[in-house]
Design brief:
The complex is a heterodimer. Chain A is of the alpha+beta class. Chain A has 3 domains: 2-81, Uridine Diphospho-n-acetylenolpyruvylglucosamine Reductase, domain 2, CATH 3.30.43; 88-206, Uridine Diphospho-n-acetylenolpyruvylglucosamine Reductase, domain 3 (2-Layer Sandwich), CATH 3.30.465; 210-369, FAD-linked oxidases, C-terminal domain (Vanillyl-alcohol Oxidase, Chain A, domain 3), CATH 3.40.462. Chain A is built from 14 helices and 19 strands. Chain A has helices at 2-12, 40-52, 106-115, 132-137, 145-148, 183-186, 221-232, 246-251, 268-280, 291-296, 299-302, 318-325, 347-360, 383-396, and strands at residues 17-18, 33-35, 57-60, 78-81, 88-92, 97-101, 118-119, 155-162, 167-171, 195-203, 205-206, 210-218, 240-244, 258-266, 286-287, 307-312, 330-334, 339-344, 363-369. Chain B is α+β, with helices and mostly antiparallel strands. Chain B has 3 domains: 2-88, Uridine Diphospho-n-acetylenolpyruvylglucosamine Reductase, domain 2 (2-Layer Sandwich); 95-212, Uridine Diphospho-n-acetylenolpyruvylglucosamine Reductase, domain 3, CATH 3.30.465.10; 216-405, Vanillyl-alcohol Oxidase, Chain A, domain 3 (3-Layer(aba) Sandwich), CATH 3.40.462.10. Chain B is built from 17 helices and 20 strands. Chain B has helices spanning 2-12, 21-24, 48-61, 113-120, 139-145, 152-155, 189-193, 227-239, 252-262, 285-298, 310-321, 323-327, 346-359, 386-405, 424-427, 430-443, 459-465, and strands at 17-18, 41-43, 65-68, 85-88, 95-99, 104-108, 125-126, 162-168, 174-178, 202-209, 211-212, 216-224, 246-251, 272-280, 303-306, 333-336, 339-340, 363-368, 374-375, 377-381. In chain B, a hairpin with a 5-residue loop joins strand 8 (162-168) and strand 9 (174-178). In chain B, helix 8 (227-239) runs antiparallel to helix 13 and helix 13 (346-359) packs antiparallel against helix 14. The longest helix of chain B is centred in the C-terminal third of the chain and has 20 residues, at 386-405. Chain B is globular, with a radius of gyration of 22 Å. Classes of the chains: A alpha+beta, B alpha+beta. Bound molecules: flavin-adenine dinucleotide (FAD) (2 copies). Residues 30-31, 66-74, 77-78, 89, 109, 131-133, 137-138, 140-142, 144-145, 147-149, 197-198, 202-203, 324, 413-414, 450, 475 of chain B line the site of one flavin-adenine dinucleotide.
């Protein structure tokens, strides 16, 4: 083991070797060693070595989602940490395009962009920890997806190292390109299993002049659906259209009632027109405290659930699903997009949630599953996608070293 | 041949199998007309299952299959390089469902782009990607080329509007990737099939995202004395954080052609105009318009005209969408290039492109998606003059090399096809190309589906790369 570590420190330097590996555990298994490379060349060298000794590797961004998709791990040798690759490489404010290393966290990037009155309109959980590589590799998004799309929609180009150690690029650092296959889009949702993203080029947006969070409560879920369906047919352009169950609203510091939240941004008069328009239609819209959104996405506030599922539904079915699952825990939906986060803390509730979701949801992803749920499937198997993804993986990572 | 015809007739019916060379000639190229090759047979299926059966026949007889939509492609993407069974989706043109509440539409891949928006219009929705060819091109062809259009500046290109695909893999298996709901659990296969130019399989159905029709518009025309002033305005509009729905540039030569063809009343003494469209809710649009006008005037715009009613707006857009066709009046032939550059570099690149054309003694017209930095330099020439044809080819390559030097791309929306495969090495390293090849191996290991496209090391590309790359005629 010692000469092995020496080999690694020859690649990443002694500061790049992490021997305290408990925080890097997956499914209660700690890796033998952690490595924190500083360049694409170092990652290539590491992966070549991992291929040589068939050492299974897990890529770590901020570590907020490393468990997801990896319910059982038989062998786990190296954790490859991206935290030392966190620089902005190229930022052209006049072109609204930024290139950064994949280990940079979202909050740091936002701070730089805001100096130029620009922003990346993403609000995934834990921006101070979530890395750009992790957000893209897990295709993670927050409530603003309704107005601004998912990570894929802003990813213009990428550099990455395949599982076999070869570095490559995909896409172009301009807002449009149709030249060859867009492998960078394939990497959205790949969760570190095809290769390691080292650098991403993203299309950023101007900071809106005004951005306000509004909300209202309703007494029944059918009233929530009636409102959502009318709002979606109106000429308003919210950034988000969320639906909270009473438990969820309470955790966000709001009265414990079924709550619709919508964010409006843009010119001041446009924001005002949209909220007034809803009020004129009889909706009792109230301004909401800005921090509610962030609170809701913050794991510590919500507390570590026994089971956390992300369900993909039709937008029109979301309220009815929440009605059915009421009483199982926190239900937080990006209702305009049909994405429902369901979190349960009691074993009986988690069983109810899992039984219903697995029987009826078009698609789901397990975001957290603790004893005794740790053996449930990471996501709903989709036979076609799975077979094709397997074939792609066997090309990119022929020895299957990327867990 | 007869047994092939018979076998295919059993699948799709005799009237949907074409083997007569005269009929086949209609399928020997797309809108990139200089390379031609006859398919062995053309089939016109109506259903996914028929496509799968045709592909199985191709496998059994070891023939290539070539997907084709309307044939409006501009890079030779549907060229039957080695003959084979061409699968034209023109009869697979049904809109299968419109779900207004969830803003989704399902259509067969041969449905014409504009018909998607027409089907959505009663619900105040539309299918946002609007290529200038939208009256003819199919949504399947759009998926293959990740097509864009004037309004993709604000609304995004095809990939941003597709949530699911049904496709037939090159071995005949039917697969469903994605569907009406969001977030596939794993890798984004839909995202990578979009833009793959028909080389990963044949798309038979799409699930598209629908977008609300804007409540209000402001459409204006800004008129400039120099091209430089116009391009500088574009860069400044983008840098100022104004996101127009569309921001298109037409230069003097284009205005001349459009005036000669349609007489819309464009000024003939201006060097360039910008067509700027702003949209959204009514509130705030006047202020946005004032900001845009101020930027244009600070760059010496001579005049800004505002479309007063929907009819004037429609006229301006008709002029833009028909501009390339109108250029046919100015020269026997023209070729449209397609490259992308960072938007902050527009003035510099257009100046250099002008110099390149000038050095080759050629006339250059510009009509393009300026807000996206997506250039369409159009070189005018006489195709009966071989020397001029050669100069056009060289100038086109130099302009693309210039785009790449500026950190841009070989193509913004027309794709690589057969036309640009020889230039892929200039944009991508061998490791980049090897990675793309790996993806292809996972879907299309025998190169059965749409062979010899995109990659620079195919036999066809190799043989034509060193021959004179002749330009596309008469768009
Ligand atoms: C309200 C709420 C909403 C949530 N919404 C979502 C959601 O929509 N989607 C979702 O997936 N989770 C969601 N989560 C889950 C949550 O974020 C996680 O459970 C968690 O907190 C874990 O880390 P990271 O960013 O630190 O993860 P990372 O360490 O970033 O890892 C994420 C994945 O990407 C891989 N990866 C990281 N960096 C790279 C790289 N450079 N190259 C290649 N692969 C890389 C990792 O191997 C891992 O598989 C949500 C949680 C809450 C509370
Ligand atoms: C006047 C004019 C203006 C244009 N303007 C624009 C513009 O503004 N923006 C833009 O993006 N493009 C534009 N184009 C280019 C062209 O219209 C687009 O590339 C369009 O997407 C092609 O669609 P099609 O149905 O004609 O496809 P085709 O030309 O038939 O095929 C194009 C490619 O798609 C593949 N293909 C077709 N159908 C399928 C399928 N079902 N499954 C898999 N592969 C398939 C073919 O194999 C081929 O590689 C223009 C073309 C013309 C002639």
């Amino acid at each position: 083991m010692d000469s092995f570590c020496q080999g690694l420190s020859a690649i990443v330097g002694s500061e790049g070797v992490i021997s305290q590996t408990e925080p890097l555990a997956i499914a209660e298994r700690s890796p033998k060693i952690g490595v924190a490379p500083q360049s694409e060349e170092e990652i290539s060298a590491l992966l070549e070595q991992a291929n040589g000794c068939k050492a299974p590797v897990v890529v770590w961004g901020g570590g907020t989602e490393a468990q997801v998709g990896r319910s059982a791990v038989d062998r786990y040798d190296w954790a490859l940490c991206m935290n030392r690759m966190d620089a902005i490489l190229d930022y052209q404010p006049a072109d609204l395009v930024v290139t950064a290393q994949a280990g940079m966290n979202l909050q740091t990037l936002q701070a730089v962009l805001s100096e130029y009155q620009q922003t990346l309109p993403w609000n995934p959980p834990q921006p101070e920890r979530s890395t750009l590589g992790g957000i893209i590799a897990s295709a993670r998004s927050g409530s603003w997806r309704f107005g601004h799309g998912v990570p894929r929609d802003r990813l213009l180009a990428m550099r990455a190292v395949r599982g076999d150690g070869t570095a490559f690029k995909s896409g172009a650092k301009v807002v449009k390109s149709v030249a060859g296959f867009d492998i960078h889009r394939l990497f959205c949702g790949s969760r570190g299993t095809l290769g390691i993203i080292t650098e991403v080029t993203l299309k950023v947006a101007p900071l809106p002049e005004r951005s306000e969070l509004w909300g209202m409560t309703v007494d029944h879920y059918d009233l929530a659906e009636a409102a959502l369906s009318e709002w979606m047919a109106m000429a308003i352009l919210p950034d988000s259209l969320d639906l909270l169950n009473p438990d969820c609203a309470a955790r966000g510091g709001l009265p414990a009632k079924i709550t619709i939240l919508a964010r409006f941004s843009g010119f001041e008069e446009a924001v005002r027109w949209q909220t007034n328009h809803l009020k004129e239609r009889g909706y009792a819209l109230q301004p909401m405290p800005e921090e509610v959104e962030m609170l809701l996405q913050d794991m510590p506030v919500l507390g570590d659930p026994l089971l956390h599922l992300r369900l993909s539904l039709k937008s029109s079915d979301t309220a009815a699903w929440m009605d059915t699952l009421e009483g199982t825990g926190i239900l937080y939906a990006h209702a305009g997009s049909g994405i429902l986060h369901a979190m349960a803390w009691e074993e009986a509730h988690a069983h109810r949630l899992a039984d219903y979701a697995f029987a009826h949801a078009p698609r789901w992803l397990t975001l957290r599953a603790r004893e005794p749920f740790h053996h449930i499937a990471p996501w709903k198997p989709d036979a076609h996608s799975r077979a094709l993804t397997q074939r792609i993986k066997s090309q990119f990572d022929p020895q299957s070293i990327l867990l | 041949m007869q047994s092939l015809q018979k076998e295919l007739s059993v699948i799709v019916g005799a009237d949907a199998v074409l083997t007569d060379p005269i009929q086949l000639r209609a399928y020997d190229c797309d809108a990139y007309t200089i390379e031609k090759s006859l398919p062995t047979v053309v089939t016109l299926p109506q259903e996914t299952a028929q496509v799968a059966e045709i592909v199985k026949v191709a496998n059994r007889l070891d023939l290539p299959v070539i997907p084709r939509g309307a044939g409006t492609g501009l890079s030779g993407g549907s060229l039957a390089v080695n003959g084979g069974i061409l699968i034209a989706t023109t009869r697979m043109n049904r809109i299968l469902s419109v779900d207004a509440r969830n803003r989704r539409l399902r259509a067969q891949s041969g449905a014409v782009n504009i018909h998607l928006s027409k089907a959505a219009k009663p619900f105040n929705l539309h299918y946002a990607p609007d290529p200038s060819s939208q009256g003819a091109c199919t949504v399947g062809g759009n998926v293959a080329e990740n097509a864009g259009g004037p309004h993709t500046l604000k609304y995004g290109v095809t990939v941003n509007h597709i949530t699911g695909l049904t496709m037939v893999l090159p071995d005949g298996e039917i697969v469903e990737l994605g569907d009406e709901v969001e977030d596939p659990g794993g890798c984004d296969l839909v995202g990578v099939v979009v833009g793959s130019e028909g080389t990963l399989g044949i798309v038979t159905e799409v699930v598209a995202r629908l977008t609300p029709l804007p409540a209000a518009y402001r459409t204006l025309l800004a008129i400039f004395e120099t091209l430089d002033d116009a391009t500088r305005s574009v860069s400044q509009l983008i840098a100022a954080g104004i996101v127009p729905a569309a921001l298109e540039l037409m230069d003097k030569l284009v205005l001349e052609a459009v005036e000669a063809a349609f007489g819309y009343g464009f000024p003939l003494d201006a060097e360039a105009v910008l067509l700027i469209e702003l949209d959204g809710v009514e509130a705030g649009l006047d202020r946005l318009q004032a900001q845009a006008i101020e930027i244009c005037h600070s760059n010496h715009a001579r005049e800004t005209r505002i479309a007063r009613d929907p009819l004037e707006r429609a006229k301006l857009w008709a002029a833009r969408k028909k501009a390339i066709g109108a250029l046919g009046r100015l020269a026997p032939s023209c070729v449209t290039q397609d490259g992308v550059i960072p938007r902050a570099r527009l003035s510099h690149v257009l100046r250099e492109a002008g110099e390149i054309a000038h050095n080759y003694g050629l006339r250059l017209a510009n009509v393009f998606h300026a807000g996206d930095g997506n250039l369409h330099p159009v070189l005018l020439f006489d195709d009966s003059n071989p020397d001029e044809v050669e100069r056009v080819a060289k100038a086109g390559d130099e302009i693309l090399a210039l785009c790449l030097r500026e950190g841009g791309s070989l193509s913004g929306e027309h794709g690589i096809g057969t036309e640009k495969c020889g230039l892929m090495n200039a944009m991508f390293s061998s490791a980049d190309l090897e990675t793309m090849r790996m993806l292809k191996n996972a879907f299309n290991p025998d190169d059965r589906c749409n062979p010899e496209k995109i990659f620079p090391d195919t036999r066809y590309c190799y043989e034509t790369k060193y021959a004179l790359r002749k330009p596309a005629f008469g768009l």
